[in-house]
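Hey team,

Sharing the Copper-sensing transcriptional repressor RicR run so nobody has to redo it. Sequence (86 residues) first:
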Amino acid sequence: MEETNKKLLNRLKRSEGQLRGIQKMIEEDQGCMDVMTQLSAVRSSIDRVMGILVAENLKACIQNPADNAEEQSKKLDQAIQMIIKK
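Structure output:
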């Protein structure tokens, strides 16, 4: 899990840098298409982080099932809802 967290944090830091770059682009009146391209890249990166988090949650839920079957089912349903909302 520590390795996954490190990868997620690196991806988020990259997205943060991209967002700062987008702010600068807007301040410098860069073209709309260039700004949109960068915004799309940030969105894709964030979507990837969300996907990894949900996948890790599902994997943990399956590998370490709850003692209570109802609680286990609830956790799985929550993970599925996170995927569907996307």
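The CA atoms of residues 26 and 35 lie 7 Å apart.

Ping me if you want the raw files.
A.
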